[in-house]
Amino acid sequence: MTAAPDAVTREKIDLERLALWLEAAIPGFSGPVKLSKFPGGQSNPTYRLDAASQSYVLRRKPFGPTLPSAHAVDREHRLIAALHPTGFPVAQPYALCEDDAVIGAKFYVMELVDGRSLADGSLPDETPSARGEMYRALTSALADLHAVDHEAVGLADYGRPGNYFERQIGRWTKQYRASQTDDIPEVEGLIEYLPRTVPEQTRTSIIHGDFRIDNALFEPEGTRIKAVLDWELSTLGDPLADFTYYAMQWAMPAGDGGAGLAGLDFAATGIPTLEDTVALYCERTGRDTVPTMDWYFAYNLFRLVGIVQGIKKRMSDGNASSDKAEATVARLVPLATAAWDFARRAGA
Predict the structure, then answer these.
(1) With left for phi above 0 and alpha for psi between -120 and 50, is residue 45 left, alpha or beta?
(2) pTM for the full predicted model
(3) How many Cα atoms occupy the beta-carbon half-sphere of 290 within 13 Å?
(4) How many CB atoms lie within 10 A of CB 81?
(5) Is there a cis peptide before residue 32, judged by omega within 30 degrees of 0?
(6) Given its phi and psi angles, is residue 264 left (phi above 0), alpha (psi -120 to 50 degrees) or beta?
(7) What is the pLDDT of residues 64-106, one digit of tens each?
(8) In whole numbers, what is the pLDDT of the chain averaged over residues?
(9) Does residue 10 have a pLDDT over 60?
(10) What are the beta bridge partners of residue 110?
(11) Helices H / strands E in the chain, number of each
């Protein structure tokens, strides 16, 4: 899939200047180049980059003002450069450009992986056997990520010390306040409740930050994961943040073409139950169990509220990175309501 023909022209990317930089930075690269923007996504704009040498993927920061600490493509590049040699499924990184003068923002270039991105968590076009294999592959990949020795791969300083949830609640509260456009009572309740009920952190690992089915690329005609994508929110932290975010698929309703699985007949579809998923994750990570998830679901949805609020602010500033921004922003209040519902179940 590609963008409308004039998308790159509207963004005023100088393709000749970009080609010159790439020829100097990537061995064997040769232009001319053509960019076509992938649809969807609200974070770092992503393009297919076709050159005479081969095809690649380019990810850049949004043009214009952005919130502090957001859209750090240099961190993404550092992370996948550390993970790729371990055999964990990520695209091979080729080059990072920190000079805004080349295309107007920082960017990096990586391998174009041949694979399928599947947004519908019910996997309607797969067989029951394939669905089971694909979800077990997802769960295993997440467990394998959490088993990577972050110090050994050079990422000892990739996240700050201390309780991850405490830091993240503070971060997303600040991000929300910096982009706030409305008064939402449920968000105010979460901002009061979450920081005073933070669970103890017992493990630290690399965490993806947005691990769900549509951020994985599966084989074109198989069930193996070829690459995990979109590392913008990655850091060091509590692996339960990642696992419970992934587990929310089983708590969110199926049927709208999204990742949600609640209401499906798991025996008939072949998709593992949440209990089976917890068991596999625990087996591969050496855990006895995982805690009751209501607090974690409230936290994860609160973080999504912060992300969507940032999109709403960028949209109002004319700087949203996707034509789907308006539909995403419409989810703001429903997300806040769902987060508060989970918080109340957890004792708020």
Answers:
(1) beta
(2) 0.88
(3) 26
(4) 18
(5) yes
(6) beta
(7) 655 555 568 999 999 999 999 999 999 999 999 999 999 999 9
(8) 91
(9) no
(10) 57, 93
(11) 12, 10
d(CA 42, CA 61): 11
Phi, psi (5° rounding) for residue 117? -100, 120
- Write down all domains in the chain, each with its CATH number in brackets: 7-111 (3.30.200.20), 116-346 (3.90.1200.10)
Residue type, 33: V
CA angle, residues 68, 72, 77, in degrees to nearest 5:
165
Q: Which residue is associated with the tokens 């899939």? A: 1
Using the structure block, give the residue that is written with the tokens 């708020």. Answer: 348
Alpha carbons 179 and 309: distance in angstroms, whole number: 6
Quick: pLDDT tens for 162-185: 899 999 999 999 999 999 988 999
Count of residues making up the chain = 348
DSSP string of 29-41, one letter each residue = ----EEEEEPS--
Strands 46-51 and 225-228: unpaired
